[in-house]
Amino acid sequence: MSLDASAVAHIAHLARLGIDESAVPDYARNLSEIIDFVEQLSGVDTGDVEPLAHPLEMGQRLRPDEVSETDQRERFQAIAPATEAGLYLVPRVIE
Question: Name one GO molecular function term (predicted).
């Protein structure tokens, strides 16, 4: 698929990007190459491939779950506009 200058201008407008007119041919070529590559990827048969949660199937090294900072709830709530029972009160934004 090949994009023309008007398609690039339309995409730039939708993305609220300012593009110099002299750069439009380069953008059109680059975007066309990306679209062609995505079309090429969509043609690959992935029916026998199991989905992965992560590309590297290995355990993660986790650090010990230890407290690294002291509890400062009272200090933070003292400067908050409104609190009640240890919770921050905020204005309702959804009716």
Answer: transferase activity
